[in-house]
Every structure is written in structure tokens, then in C-alpha cells.
Amino acid sequence: MAVVVSLEGEREKRADSLDVLLGLVKDELERVNRTIVERMHSPVALIPQLASHIIAAGGKRLRPMLTLASAKMCGYREGERSVKLAACVEFIHTATLLHDDVVDESDLRRGRESANAVWGNKASVLVGDFLFSRSFELMVEDGSLSVLAILSRASSVIAEGEVLQLITANDTGTSEASYLEVIRAKTAALFAAACRVGGVVAARPMAEELALDSYGLNLGIAFQLVDDVLDYSAKQAVLGKAVGDDFREGKITLPVILAYLRGDEEERAFWRRTLEDLDQGEGDLDRAIGLMTRHACLSDTVDRARHYGAMARDALGIFKPGPEKQALLDIVDFCIERAY
Amino acid sequence: MAVVVSLEGEREKRADSLDVLLGLVKDELERVNRTIVERMHSPVALIPQLASHIIAAGGKRLRPMLTLASAKMCGYREGERSVKLAACVEFIHTATLLHDDVVDESDLRRGRESANAVWGNKASVLVGDFLFSRSFELMVEDGSLSVLAILSRASSVIAEGEVLQLITANDTGTSEASYLEVIRAKTAALFAAACRVGGVVAARPMAEELALDSYGLNLGIAFQLVDDVLDYSAKQAVLGKAVGDDFREGKITLPVILAYLRGDEEERAFWRRTLEDLDQGEGDLDRAIGLMTRHACLSDTVDRARHYGAMARDALGIFKPGPEKQALLDIVDFCIERAY
Question: I need a labelling partner for B37 at 20 to 30 A (CA). Which of A326, B107, B177, B262 fits?
Fold first, then answer.
């Protein structure tokens, strides 16, 4: 199992790296928040009500921060375009969260009742559609066809990834490769697009756009893998999230895939019963965590995440040193170390 | 009640006017269909499967035909852009149908099982998202920011209209004005955008773009009002649709609004019981149709539709005569007369 030395020191460093990134884009992020509030306005009051429930619940605003920091690292200073496009990215993210919760039948999101639990699935589907459309309206205002191409492509890749996940759901025989394909699409594509858009507004050469894309893609994969670990980790409770949501929904994530591959026949029968048949009883979640620990599935998933994190960091190699670059490098560690 | 003289003759004329429109854009419409099939392709096989279920089920392709005919009337001859954008319009329409069926919990669509009934709500939500995103990708390929602005605006107006409808659902006290607001948004906005885009590809002046918008908007309102009438009409069965779907779902449409306003207290209690409480028994649908007939609600709704149809026709006044203009004028009658 990966050993973290000096856990306290690590924790402080992590909190620092998020704060440092936040500090670098603080003004712009406040303007992103204002743009979000302004642009989710509609004469149909339920729309801002429901949208603000999920947007205000807060999340880390990691994706819009990536757009802002990428743009700044690339020398973009005015801020108006990156602010507007960071809001687009957050709108797309929020729209997919609303639809995800409907698809997953989730009752909790970011530690509070999910929008579908409060207002019902119907409103969540439609307000998701609204935010998605509004995001495209904002991009059209910005006027860059390159940005529109990047974010419309990302949106259809996300939808493809979600459908793929739906199909492979509850299949304990899912391979690591096909699981990676799912998270590359459903999570990492938007991270990649968020970063790349920062390079577009700064009018940087294609090589830098693609480097930002690669940084975001690999960071997104690492981020999702750690998310999967957190769902089986005591750390999750601290974040205001329920432990074992993925387990209860029968979601096949990398820790499960590894546990299944490394388990004996009796263990595989356990995984099939609990995750395919969703026949779960008391003690099953504990047993799942026990099996994952025995086979080092959680720590190895974090190791996989480190691999993608390393690729993310190297992708930034072509950029000159500076505070934004450093913050983007450090945020990779933050995304991985939050597993602990 | 509006009297239709020479019903048989009317019927023939109607069938003719749809055929005439079809004949004028036949080649382009075939290319639209090919574009749709090509562009709904995805390595995730469920996406084309589900999408083709609804798209192949066919509908009249009225919206893409409007884009094609509007472009042609405006002198656009090459066809490639109007074909691509007509496919975008159909994708947006299909995405909203998929989400509508989830929201309405419908089991039937275009006379066959709805996609959500076959593949479940989850897949319908996600494939809708995919088609919507794909539509924006196609628009980006086309490269016109004006088109992107028109269709992204239409998309968020549609979503707003759907949310508004959700809120006013099952409220028999809905006013005619607020009902019109709903259908203007959820149905007519896409008709308007479909027509206007035709003017954009032909690079016509803003006055003509706006005339096409107004034609489409009013045609769309008329179309929806007639749709509402059809749901209570024997004609519906001929179209392979169930009569009384709106009634069973407690949908408040103009015929209901008029019947409620014109009814006595006992009748209003009937409407509240059946549509607000959804407490319906045998004979209730027949009684609803009986009340609507007694108060001339169906024929008066068709008369309202005629009013919008007349505005649609007049909006085309600024265009020179020609076969496409004539077909667009005649299609207004087709949309209204299909009530009979």
C-alpha cells in the first residue's frame, strides 16, 4: 500500500495548494460566480431556484478555476473572456450533474439533498437542458468558433461516456480499459476542454492548446479515480458525502474491477451478488471495503491516479515557470492526495 | 362551430400541400435523412439504436422541411448548409422529444412505444443530451455564429417553456395568456428558428430573417393548438395516436382552459377532479369531450389557430411569389386543417 509520510504535513500542503490556486484567480472567480447568478436568471422562477440549489451548494469550482488559471498562465490578462467561458464550463458541469442525479437516482449531492430529490426528476432534466443551452448562448456571445467546437465536442463525448457507463453498469466483468474509456469521456473530457479553452482565449499556438488539453485530460482521470476511492473511504464522511453510494448503486469503478480480478471464486460471487443482482445485506459494504483493502485495490487505484497525475504535470513542461503554472502543478497533487 | 365545407375536397387539398412542399425539397430532405443517420453514429451502439428508434419512427420532418423551403424561397440553391442545419433542427427536436417523454412518462410516441418505455428513462435523458450536443457540433462545422445564436437561444427558450409547463401542469386555473406563453416557448420557438436559419444561409437582410421568424412562430403556435385539439378528436386514432393522452396526464391545454372558463361550478369541479387530482373513472374522457363540444372549445381552439395561421401567412408578404412561398403558405392550411 502506498505509504504517505508525514500525513499532517501533506494535509497542510494540500490545503495550501488549493488556496494558492484560489488566490491567483480570486477576482476572476468572483466574477464567474456573478456571471453564473446573472445568467441562470429566467422569468421562470423555478429555474434559478433549482439551479442555485446545486450551484450554490458549492463544489470546489475546480473546472472554472482551471480555465481561469490556464488562461492566466498563457498570458491572458483582461479576464472578461476567461470569466465568461469559465461560467460556461461550470454550466455544462452543472447540467451534467443534474442529469446524472436523475440517471443515478441519487438523493444526495454535495452533502445536501439533490435537486431531483427536492423538485423531482422532471424539473432536473429540464433545468439541466436550460443550463446547457444557456452555456451555448454564452459561448456564442464570446464569439469564438474554436471554443464552441471544443465545448460542443466535449459535451457530446460526455453524453457518450454516460451512455457507455449506463450500459456497462452492474457488470463486474468490466475491464480496466473500458472503465478508463468511460471516465475519460464522462469526467476527463470536460477537464481537458476547460483547460484548453484557457489557451484559446490567450491565442496561444496549437501545441500549447493541446498541452493544456492533455494536462486537463490526465488530471481529470486522476481526479475521477480518486473520487472512486473516496466512495469506499472514511475520508468521504468528512466531505459530507455518504460512504458506499457507488456500492449501493452497483457502480463498477476501478477499485471494484481490481478486487474482482484479484479475488477468488467465492469473492467474485460476492461481487456479483452485491453489484450485479444488487442483493445487499448488512455487513456487505464492510466486507467490500475489507476485500479491497486485502487486495490493495484502493491504494493501487490511487497509484494509477498518480500515473495520470504525472502525465498531467509533464504536459505542462512546455510552459514557462510562473505562479499559475506552479499552482496547476500543485493542484495535481491536491487532487490525488485528497484520497487521504 | 366552424363549418368545413366540402370536407373531402379539403382533405385532398391538404394532402396535396404537404406533398407539394415535400416535392420541392425532396432531394435535400433525403440528404437531411442521410446526415441524420451519419451524425447520430457513435461507437456506443445504444446511441444510434435509441436515436434511430425515434427518428426513424418518422414524424413529418416538418421542421427540417421548413428550414429547407425557407432557404430555397430566399434564393439559396447550393443546399449543403441548409441540409446540415435542417439536420441540426431535427436533432434538437428529437432531443426535446426524448426528454419530454421522460418528463411526461409517456409510453407512446408517434404510434409506437416511446424510447423511454423500451430503453428506460436514463438512456433517453443521456441520448437526448448526446443529440443536443451533436447538433451544436454540426452548427460549429457550419461556422455561422448567427445560426448558433438563433438555435442556442431557441434551445434555452424551449427548456424555459418546458419548465413553465411543468409548473402550470394540472392547474385548471391557467389563463389562456400563460398557456400561449408556454407553447410559444416550447413549440413555436423552434419553428421560428428553423425558418429563420433558412434566411441566414441565404444571407438575406434582417427584415427577411425576422419575417421568417414571425412566420415560423405563428405557424408553430397554430400547429400546437391543433395538436391540442387532436388529442380530444377521433381524428387522432387515424394518426396512430391514442386519444385522451393529454387528459390522462392532466395536461392543461387551450380546449381545457376554455371549457373551464365557460363551465358552471359543477363542470369546474369535474375538471379539477379529473385534471388536478387525476381522479379519473370510466366515462370521464367522454364527458370531457362532451363538455368541450357543448362549449365549442375544440372548434374555437381551431379558430384561434386560424388567427395565428393568418399572421404566419401575412409575415411572408415581403417575399416574392414563387413555388416555395406558395408551399409555405399552403402548409399553414395543412397544419390547421389536419384538425379535421
Answer: B107
